[in-house]
Amino acid sequence: MKLTAYYWERTKRYRSAMAGLEFIVFLIILAAAGPFFTVSPTHVDFNEKNMPPPGFMLEQSMYNASSGGFVTTVQHGSWAHPLGTDGMGRDMLAMLISGARVSLLVGLLATGIAIIIGALIGITSAYFGGAMDSILMRATDIFMTFPFLLLLILIVYLFGSSLTLIILAIGLTGWTGTARLVRSETLSLRTREFIIASKALGASHLRIIFYHLLPNILSSIIVLATLSIPGAILAEAALSFIGLGDPQVASWGNILNAGQGSLQTAWWVTVEPGMMLFFTVLAFNFLGEGLRQAFEPGGD
Amino acid sequence: MDKPLYEQYFNYISSLLHGDWGWSFGTSMPVMELIKTHWVYSFQLVLLSSIFAIVLGISLGIFTAVKKNSRADHIAAFFSFAGISIPHFWLGIMLILIFSVRLGWFKTYYDTSLPMLSLENLYALTLPVLTLGTGMVAGYSRYVRSAMLENMGKDFVRTARAKGLPESTVIGKHVFRNAMLPVITIIMLDMSGIVFGGAYITEVIFGIPGLGWMSLKAVFADDYSVVMAVTLIGAFLTLLFNLLADIAYTCLDPRIRYE
Amino acid sequence: MDSENELGTVLSVTGLCTYFFTKKGIVKAVDNVSFDVRKGEIMCIVGESGSGKTVTALSLLRLVEHPGRIVEGKIMFDGKNLLDLTLREMRDIRGKKIAMIFQDPHSSLDPVFTIGEQIAEAMTAHKGITKGEAKARVYELLKLVDIPEPERRFHEYPHQFSGGMKQRVMIAMALSCKPLILIADEPTSSLDVTIQALILDMFIELRKKFNMAIIYITHDLWVIRYISDRVAVMYLGIIVESADKKEIFENPLHPYTQALLSSLPGKKGRILLKGEVPSPVNPPEGCRFHSRCPKRFDRCEKIEPEMKEVVSGHFVMCHLYS
Amino acid sequence: MCGRAALLSAGIGLSGCLERASEGVNQSVNTTSGAPKAGGKFIEGASGADAETLNWILVADATSLGYIGLTLDGLIAYDNNFNTVLRWMKKDIEVSQDGLAYTVTLRDDLEWSDGKPVTSEDFVYTMKNLMFADWMAYSYAGDWKEDVEGKSVFVEPKVDNETTFTIHRKTVNPEFLYTVTDLNVYPKHIASRYEGDVKGFTQAPELNDLSYTGNLGPYRYKEWIRNDKIVMERNPDYYGGRVNGEPYFDEYTIKIFGTSEARHAAMEAGDISSTAIEPEQVKKFKEMPSVQVFTVPTSQYQMMQYNMRDNGWEGLRNKNVRQALSMAISKEKIIQQVRLGFGEPAYSFIPKTSPWYDETGLLKLGAGALYDKNKAKERLVEAGYGARKNNEIQVINKNGSQIKLKLVTNTGSNVAESTAFLVKQELADIGIEVDIKLVPWETELRKYYINKVPGSDQEPRNNNGARAVSEESWDLILAGHFVDLLQPSGSEIFFTSDGGLNIYGYSNPQVDALFKKARSKDAMDKNVRKEVYAELSKLVSEDQPLDFFTFPTANIAFKKGVLGIEPGINMNYNYQEWYFG
Predict the structure, then answer these.
(1) Number of CB pairs, chain A paired with chain D, less than 8 A apart
(2) What is the pLDDT of residues B194-253, one digit of tens each?
């Protein structure tokens, strides 16, 4: 715990990292509490469609088949929808909050899966060495040659676009980096005195791995995880953007994809989720970078 | 089709090796032909983006390393973080929104009828290159900066200064050349990811009929011979760029060259 | 040469202060250091690691890096204060008039350029000679430092050289512009003992041949006895004692010097110092050595002693002699 | 024309089928003075999927047919009023008195690219050896079959002479005429090289690049970059151009855009000559001085299918419940909110634009007086799905629980999604909860369309009999259907008990009989057929197997300079006569 406090102190020194952390915390609170103070993100009201944020206006016209003319109405922004509405009158704020939940879920779970798989493979490979190491590392190499995004698209296309599957797919394709890092860290630790000492004392493999190896490479894993989260979030957004996202949830990528067709009129539908995505990714990158520097020995 | 699976697989591999990549049912042409007509669009996009990113990324990296901890360095650091973080598909849309829709400077789509080697084509590729290149610039500038900084603290740099060499030589020759070693490796290893990662979606946004868009359409059309071929090309590119990285490293680092 | 004054002094350092401004505080790595270097002599600066020897050397060429800064002092050379020179003027001094050799020959050479090119670089930068001329000159220099087959070696890279050979390359590089002063910062400490001796011999020989002064930095008393003409002893950023070699070895005055010399083999009554070197961020008040001094008394803790010339040419900074 | 293939529109809003293929001849109805000039490149902007093949017999998508139509005219075309315009034929198809023989007389100046004449032998060969051949598995072979003594057999084409052939039937079907008019042809001397060899035929380069088409169409294949554009160049030998040198355009390009936004921007910038405009943008484009926008009807209707099979809500099997639901959903709202006014309300499957349209007896649910949520509720109560509580009606299941319906539609279309949410809103007003499920079109076909009797070893199909159910349960599916305006009997696949695309398990013996009648000897008399269709429309609108929503109207923009266009439902029929003024 003392160590945690120490690193916390060091991380606190990086202002951008703290700003990132604050944003992430804010996002988590928003995602958790948002549904209690906004309307439902699936609440549709066609009378309020394409409503701009307050301060903007939009002209909409309706064709009158019998006269061949148009009825034009001017839509003004209102504080009832502080971020405007989409083409179906859904509240953008509510949708963005729902999107935050999706993105955080994807980012954390997919990264978690990737890290666990990667760490297991990395540790097994390095700790047992020999043939096991060769086999696992060659497998990792081969896996790395697959074009990641194409693989993801293929999996999601073949097995359907549910959020669960997307998270699994991102997790299952994103572990190679962790495996390599954990392997090299473990390799350098394996021959250190305290490991050799525990081995000499007859500690079991599991005990050595969990009590001695893991805690020592944890900081690297935490940094890697923080820096991997944006990748997972972006992967989901990219999938959704090309139309392979889970259609049942309002994720930022989905909103972006749908808004693309009305770029000229309802610009806010594409601008807002993109901004959220951008800031979230930026926040995780800042935090990750701060952690990396804090964990770096002598990183002053 | 009723032969055992391993035999089908063997036949497939052996025909691949004979240059027969199968027939694309989604587009009614041999897969080889299809790839032949489409690769060049991806290639020009990736090539131009790389040139843009490498030139700008390296310059920026050197500049920020030399001006370490200055205001300019902090600003550049912020922008490179922003560049890494910005989702490039969104960036593409925003560029279209601003420069094509609002300002009307560019077309909202890529026009394949432009001659490949013309200024018009270069102009037409501006937004796609910016879209794909921004993240690359940001990434490369950070690699270069940290590699430069790492080498600036090296003893041989002090030696060079003690020799009375001008600072431009010290940085531009000794630090730079050493910093380039890891940077070139990283750039090379990045490349295959860019062809099938960033370029992919950039092509979709701008309607560039490159390998990325083609393979996406192939997935949607259940055109498996194309999907197979693209996956293989992806794997091949990864291996190729790994090899190129090794070769580049060997050429640049005499320590390896003479072993 | 007209750069020497009537006493034969080529370099005169007065009140040099080089501080490092770190987040934890100001580190006074070199604090009010003064010494002279005379023409053609080998002047040794000795001290434990962290005593400020290397920073002193780097300060002479103004090569101290951020966060370090020379805050005060004068370095007179060639009638000019080096600290007043512009960077461009300073560049003309470096490598040309004052050359430097560093501690670790392995890391001091750029691994990606041939050694020939690296040696020639200094000459082309200073003398504006052609590459061909430089090449011929490099061959000469390589021969001078006893590197066989210079024509072949010219095109080789540092990793193809052994440590001793690399240091010879460094020496050749330093000599390339025939400097008046050569600063050698522990040039042999990373080499085998047998090779050390060869290199030291080379220094002695070259000093004569080039008629240059050498500022030799080391922590190795054996080396000092072998090579030096004069010795300055540093402790925690200040020079506590300086004198001719003979004087120092026969009549060490400062308790610190006495303790140092007592560790030489064959000496009786070895003095063991207690404690560790205090942090240079907060050096002890009064005499900096008092916290470890076996002969300290009240005054030592409060008043900083002044440098005194006890015997002619023998300076010491200790309350015992005031 | 969008063939039978495309009758099932690829999900709402996904279809990009611009009708073309059939073209008119010698009918210059130019609206401007002065002779048309040749020259210029015409670029049509499209979005959606690219064509799959130019080898026409393999085609299963409308886009491919559109491309092929540029080089192969076909036997006839229909103008906006459905008048026949002869193309490859010298005179109209002659149907024998007994309705059993169809004689086609070809022009004598048709040539393949190698100069060989196009003969009736080529047509007969194409039918007998390719379309009807087992190895080929032609998708629409069924259109060329008839039931003879309980067996399904192919019709018999016979060569009469060089330019005349006759197709003989054993049973009468007045609407077979429209099948004949869709006939296309391969050169026998080339196609016969690949006979019996599916792979060879599929991959034959000369069949895939249309290099054999000679003077059979106004344009010739020049270049095709997949998913980007296809370029056709003027066919100088075009038989139709012998008189006045048409076609006028040097090149006809179809350029595919990734998004409608890009397409619109290209139109606005003048980079392309024509494209369809999305409803939101129509006003803007109509106001542009450089653009003309035509608002034209389409032959598609959008609707919501009620699942009457065992895996749907049991209430949907009751006609009154279906009517009640349709009564609660306003067609006007859908037209206004989703299509921004561009659409006509639909009450049955035959639109106003069809010559067979008859309004009498149509039950106009969801419009006017029959858009009434209270009446809808009352009707549900009558059917047993609700209870009255102090003048308030609560719509509930027979067991007292909340009625929940699962509505399925395809992803990737704002129109589909918006309509779905609108339906949800409307039905919420009468107390029915709708759960919207958006799935990719392919998934929709696989999991919701295809059905089979549980536990059986049936080959899954779109209609495997009354007891068959789809893999996933559903209650409502939003989709679009095309209707063949000249022969609405083609819609039997949707409405007869064993119709191939009757996925919702609709069965009405009367309807089955009427569809049969439309293709029988009795229907040789056009008046009889008119009556049959009127009756069918009425029956289907009463039964409401689906809630017909709208016949959307399309907006096609052209550069102001493009002349010779006759706006209408078949406006492309004379496209080779268009020119830049």
Answers:
(1) 73
(2) 877 788 889 988 989 998 888 888 888 888 889 888 888 888 888 888 888 888 888 888
Residues 218-247 of A with CB under 8 A from D: 243, 247
Please count the residues of chain A: 300
Asked if residue A71 belongs to a domain, the reply is no
What are the chain D neighbours of B205 within 8 Å (beta carbons)?
Answer: 258
pTM: 0.87
Residue-wise pLDDT tens digits, D124-173:
999 999 999 999 989 889 899 999 999 999 999 999 999 999 999 999 99
Interface of B with D in 131-190 (CB under 8 A): none
Which D residues, 254 through 293, put their C-beta within 8 Å of a C-beta on chain B?
Answer: 256-259, 261-262, 265-266, 269, 271
Q: Is residue A34 part of a domain?
A: no
Does C200 map to a domain?
yes
Of C102, C112, C173, which is closest to B155 when you measure between CB atoms? C102
* B52-69 average pLDDT score: 93
Of A146, A241, A271, the CB nearest to B89: A241
Structural domain of residue A184, as residue ranges? 14-28+87-295
CATH code, domain with A189: 1.10.3720.10
Domain contains C153: no
Q: Which of residues 206-235 of B touch A (CB under 8 A)?
A: 215-216, 219-220, 227, 230-231, 234-235
| Tally of domains in chain C | 1
CATH number, domain containing residue C197: 3.40.50.300
Q: Quote the number of domains for chain A.
A: 1
**Three-state SS sequence of chain C:** CCCCCCCCEEEEEEEEEEEEEECCEEEEEEEEEEEEEECCCEEEEECCCCCCHHHHHHHHCCCCCCCEEEEEEEEEECCEEHHHCCHHHHHHHECCCEEEECCCHHHHCCCCCCHHHHHHHHHHHHHCCCHHHHHHHHHHHHHHCCCCCHHHHCCCCHHHCCHHHHHHHHHHHHHCCCCCEEEEECCCCCCCHHHHHHHHHHHHHHHHHHCCEEEEEECCHHHHHHHCCEEEEEECCEEEEEEEHHHHHHCCCCHHHHHHHHCCCCCCCCCCCCCCCCCCCCCCCCCCCHHHCCCCCHHHHHCCCCEEEEECCEEEECHHHC
Of B86, B193, B219, Cβ closest to residue A157: B219
Smallest CA–CA distance from A89 into chain D, residue = D418
CB contact under 8 A, A282 and B193: no
- Cβ within 8 Å, pair B166-C111: no
C60 is in which domain, residue-wise? 2-97+177-248
Q: Inform me whether the pLDDT recorded for A129 exceeds 60.
A: yes
DSSP B162-195: HTT--HHHIIIIIIHHHHHHHHHHHHHHHHHHII
Chains with 3+ CB–CB pairs under 8 A to A are B, D
